[in-house]
Endoribonuclease L-PSP/chorismate mutase-like domain-containing protein
Amino acid sequence: MAGTIAARLAELGIDLPKLPAPAGAYVPYTISGKMLFISGQIPMRDGALSHTGKVGSDLSVEDGYACARVCALNILAQAAAACGGDLDKVARCLKLGGFVNCGPDFNDHPKVINGASELMLQVFGDNGKHARFAVGAPSLPLGSAVEVEAIFELL
């Protein structure tokens, strides 16, 4: 049924952000067969980073969670662009990969990346269940607190 995901986004009060421009020599997504690969998304909102710094020292785990959610909103915006604006063409979310800008003693990476994972579940229901990794990094592009990438299966 066309518009099911759009209706769910509206029900959740979610407006997808404008697409951020790539920050390097890459494309925001590629499609191979029924696989959609979304490049790592940082928390860009209206042309600016919403969260910078290290989670665990500059930012709380809750801030990191919110940051991962912004990254996931950008993932959904990229997926919509790849699908001609129709997220109903997404069969399911297969995998998310999350990088958390943090110090060596930080170990709550999964709690941070849950911000992205839980959004996929809210938007896609059971089709939002996915495999995942959540790891720490000593730095991320532009000082971002979090970066998240995704792989989707298309119909």
Observations:
- The CA atoms of residues 12 and 87 lie 15 Å apart.
